[in-house]
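Quick one:
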Amino acid sequence: MSRWQQLRHVLFHVEDTPHRTALAFATGVFIAFSPLVGFHWALALGTAFALRLNRVAVFLGTYVNNPWTLAPLYLAGTALGCAMLGVSPDGLATIEWHRHGWDFYAHLMDHLKPYLWPYVLGNTVLGAAAGGATYFILRARLDRRGRRAVVPEPRGT
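Output:
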C-alpha cells in the first residue's frame, strides 16, 4: 500500500460500515448543537480520533451549524431549555440594543445570565435528538445504497 493510500485510509476510513459512517456523521451533528461555540472543530477532531471515527463525516456533521443556521438552532435550543426549566423568555425583550462598547456587553451579560442553563440544557437535548434522528436516517439510506450496489450476477443462459 502506497503512502497516499495509507493516508487516505487513515483520514477517510474508506472501508467503514454504514453503521460507523452514520455514527460519525451523527456525532458531528450532535457536536454542531454544542453550547461551546467556537470549539466545534476541536470537539469534532478530538472525538473523531478518540472514537476512531471517519474524520470527514464528523466534520461534515458539525457543519449543520453554520452562519445561516447558528441563530435559529441556538434560539430553538434555548427556547426548549426555557420550557424544560420553567424559565420565562420575557427578559430577552428588555435588552437595550442601542448601547455601545463595554456598556452594551455588561448590560447584555446581565440580561443573559438567567438563560445560561436553558441554553446549555436545551441545545444538548436538541443535539442528542438531532444526532439520533440523523443516525437512523443516514444508516437506513447507506444500508439501502449498499444493497443496490451488490447486484447479483445474471445466471448463464
